[in-house]
Amino acid sequence: MAMITHVNVCNTVNEIYCCLRNKVVKLDAQQKEQFCKGCKMFAGGAAGYDRGVSCTWEDLRTVSNPHVVLDPAQEFKDNQIRQVPPEGPALFVYTPRW
Question: Residues of 2-39 as b/e, b for ≥16 C-beta within 10 angstroms?
């Protein structure tokens, strides 16, 4: 699975989708200090944009690289969908040893 750079551009009220917290957050000094600063996914500012951050993680979805996020609410919704592999979920069979 490829590492995808997510360019999270702030919306009109300075919000972004935060993968670490799995929610839409206000990109303010507190968010940057308490979460972005220590996050292993944090990759710096949103290159080419005035406000936002870039984050890198393995994304199971089929998205461009970089993936530019302009609507944090939609990105949150899209990240709540989990795909089951074509071979189906893992099946574990328990057989007691008598």
Answer: eebbbbbbbbeeebbbbbeeeebbebeeebeeeebeeb
Burial category of 84 from C-beta neighbours within 10 Å (exposed 0-12, middle 13-18, buried 19 and up)? exposed
pTM: 0.80
| pLDDT tens readout for residues 50-79 | 899 999 999 888 899 999 999 999 999 998
Tracing tokens 């690289």 back to the chain, one arrives at: 65
Amino acid at 86: P
The token duo for 67 is 């993936």
